[in-house]
Every structure is written in structure tokens, then in C-alpha cells.
Specification:
Helices cover about 35% and strands about 20% of the residues. By secondary structure, the protein is an alpha/beta fold. Strands 3-2-1-4-5-7-6 form a 7-stranded mixed sheet. A hairpin with a 2-residue loop joins strand 6 and strand 7. The radius of gyration is 15 Å and the shape is globular. The relative contact order is 0.15. Its main location: cytoplasm. This is Ribosomal RNA small subunit methyltransferase G. It is found in: Cytoplasm. Belongs to the methyltransferase superfamily. RNA methyltransferase RsmG family.
Length: about 180
């Protein structure tokens, strides 16, 4: 996969900002940052169509939502991160990279005002049913979910129509047609 100069510049700037913040605030423990970044944006190839509005639940230091916003830059991204130091970091990155397509929410998704998203992503260590529960009111049967899961994801998908794409130890789970409630 080839990357634009803009994309490469964004990644480099992100790494520089993270190095400064991480030294003081311990935002992430990723030892292989390049792998974490590539893992984040590699999920984009499984998204059907071009979403207009997307939500990333538990964005942490930006994985995967921030990097997906680089790739899907026509989409309006809402990154939800309740940890204040992490959401402050994400705000700093957004401002320094001039990301007009990103909104940072320093709160839990379930505490926010409801709006419909075309895409909901999460790399959070949370069971799939819990993700659907806290996303209630933000999706309809046309919303896609892109979930970044580990190796034992099948047990979480009981009674859910899902596609699973595997890459090493990562499983990308696509859910569509899920009904609220």
C-alpha cells in the first residue's frame, strides 16, 4: 500500500507529539508504534462504502479512530475518550494536525447526546454485546460496526450476523444490520 505525503506527514507529526506526551503522561504502552498505527488504519479496507459520520469508542491515544480519520478524511469522526489526559492529548493532536474532520468527546459514549453514525469502531477491550449496548441510539440497521478483536472473538458473536477477517492475531469484525435495543 502506498501512502500520500500528507498521510506520511500526519503519522510523523503524531509520533513526535506522542513521544512528548507519553514521556510525561504514560498514554500508551505500545512498544511497536508502527504496528499499532498500521493495525489501526488497516481495518479501513473492510468498510463498505464511504461513511459520512463515524464514532470511535474508547479512542485512547488514537487507536484506531484517529488513524482511520487520516484515511477516511471525507468522513466526520467523533472520538469518544472519557480519560481526560487522553482526550486532552487527542485534542492537542487534532489542533496541531489541523484535523477539521475530527471532534473529540471527553466523555463516555453512553453519556453523550445521541446522533446516528454510519460507522462505529472500537478497539477497546470490551465484549461485542457491551459495545452494542452502549452504542444504543447511535446506530440503525444501516450502520456498520468495525471491531478490532483478538483471537477468541467467535464466542462474542452468538446470534449476530458478522463477517470476520483475520490478519495474524487480529480479527476485524464487521457487523451490519444490527437493530437497536
Amino acid at each position: 500500500m502506498s501512502y500520500s505525503d500528507k498521510f506520511k506527514t500526519q503519522i510523523l507529526a503524531y509520533k513526535e507529539i506522542l513521544a512528548k506526551f507519553n514521556a510525561v503522561h504514560d498514554l500508551t504502552k505500545h512498544e511497536n508504534l508502527d504496528w499499532a498505527i498500521e493495525d489501526s488504519f488497516s481495518g479501513a479496507k473492510f468498510i463498505e462504502g464511504l461513511p459520512k459520520v463515524a464514532i470511535d469508542i474508547g479512542s485512547g491515544a488514537g487507536f484506531p479512530g484517529l488513524f482511520l480519520s487520516f484515511v477516511l478524511d471525507e468522513c466526520q469522526w467523533h472520538l469518544f475518550e472519557p480519560n481526560f489526559k487522553r482526550s486532552s492529548f487527542l485534542t492537542y493532536v487534532k489542533l496541531n494536525l489541523g484535523l477539521k474532520n475530527v471532534t473529540i468527546h471527553s466523555e463516555k459514549l453512553e453519556n453523550s447526546t445521541k446522533f446516528r453514525a454510519d460507522l462505529i469502531t472500537s478497539r477497546a477491550v470490551m465484549k461485542t454485546k457491551k459495545i452494542l449496548e452502549i452504542s444504543d441510539g447511535f446506530y440503525d440497521e444501516n450502520t456498520q460496526f468495525l471491531l478490532y478483536k483478538g483471537s477468541s472473538v467467535e464466542s462474542e458473536l452468538e446470534n449476530l450476523k458478522a463477517k470476520i477477517y483475520s490478519s495474524g492475531n487480529r480479527n476485524f469484525v464487521i457487523l451490519k444490520g444490527v437493530k437497536n435495543g
